[in-house]
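Quick start: what a row looks like.
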Amino acid sequence: MKLKEEVNKVIASAFDKAGIDTAPIPVTEATKPEFGDYQFNGAMALAKALKQNPRQIAQTIVENLDLNGIITKAEIAGPGFINLWLNDTFIAQKAAEARADERIGVMERERPVKVVVDYSGPNMAKQMHVGHLRSTIIGDTLANLLSFLGDDVIRQNHIGDWGTQFGMLIAYLEEMGEDGSGSLKDLEQFYKDAKARFDADEVFADKAREYVVKIQSGDAHCLNLWKKFIDISLGHCEEVYEKLDVNLSRDDVRAESFYNDTLAKVIEDLDSAGMLKESDGAQCIFLEGEEIPVIVQKKDGGYLYATTDLAALYYRANVLGAKRISYVVDARQGGHFKQVFRVAKEAGFVPEDVRLEHVAFGTMMDKNGKPFKTRDGGTVKLIDLLDEAIVRAKEAITAKDNYSPEELERLAKIVGIGAVKYADLSINRESNYVFDWDKMLSFEGNTSLYMQYAYARIQSIFRKYEGALSGEIEISDTLEHRLAVMLLRFEDILIRAADDAAPNQITTYLYELVTLFMRFYEKNPILKEGVDEKTRTSRLLLADLTARTIKQGLNLLGIQVVERL
């Protein structure tokens, strides 16, 4: 449920009763238990407008608060803060309603929109490496989250499949045999071998250049080779997507070549809008306040990334009808997207009411604070990283229990892949972060393994409990109160995380929820002798809602839970 919205309604009612003729200021979550569940910090902001002392304003609001429903207690603190405590009966009722709901109280949006999320974006001439990890999992989480909240989400994998290097690659593929299944097992090596051939043999180089022209002019033979190359390359990506458990398929691919036929129209429309200026033979757009122009057509007539991105923006806004277009791309591309978005709006390619956003992210670093590389300084292939995560996960979980070989394989994949994804998603996406195997595979701290262990622990409680799970939730102490309130905040957290495109807000919430549940579990025994049936049932219901919330939260992050760990 939108718990904060309910509290804000009570504040708004107090404003009306007090005759405060201004828009109510939203409450915030309390930072410490002694400050209540929520805080109203708006009295200081109102002081100047109302020409009153902040504490006097706070007192007026408190006197007009309804303390018989949602809020049970309000205290004024400091220069005019109002600490608010929620009613135990209210939160018990809402927790019971959430537990009875298959979506655990999270409503779908009343006004959903169509959203395009552009993520992953591998280059077909190279194997996916660690540089593709963050875009892939941040983008997939954002798409999962927006879909869960009810938006119509279109996933787009904007792969690089068009350019001068493809003449070289398909010419080399032709030499190796048109099947390509053997020579393309290692894309990195294939590219190196093709480049070496190009540099060493002028006849081959001329053929490669000729093939570029033929691809672009639609030559059947060259396009057939090109399609084989792309098909096999996508197969490498799909192997990674399957292991990483992300929701990208062939149907989501919208490659550079998809927009190729519309690029001339982009230039024509920009010219008609009076935005183009020639500079050294190239067609450029000089934006006011920007020193560097946006080049959309080279002197030789060739197009650039900006041209393709403008064509994609037009397509997504006008053909697909998207109202929010999110590009999950490295932070270093910030300047490019800022200019392209501005051009798209000024040229009328994208309506003003469409939200364009660059969901930027930082770099994965090693323990020395340098970009993550192999020991010899090479690029780490993503599939190799994921395989290593599974191996290390086996070592981590075998220390805890004995498993059959089949069960160990299954658990290791869930735990290992979950650890890699959670470690990335748990930090502010714009920050660089240090990749640390020991930290991410720990049973303690803000890790997926800690979440999975908590979920498994709750499941073990229900395996021991033999009764039917029915009855009422009753809040009998502070820990139960705090746990119920935390569970009811889930929807607010998801909405904020979606609006901010910030998965780390979900991980922070899950960590706080699990930490709180562990304290609740230690202090409030469930199956222990001496606990009366009514109390036991209430605590079991809270535990069940906690487990389902953990599972749903991890599911949005693309991470599975386990029943036993």
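That is the whole record. The chain has four domains: 3-86, 114-125+138-159+253-324+332-356, 165-247, 424-556. Residues 165-247 form one domain.
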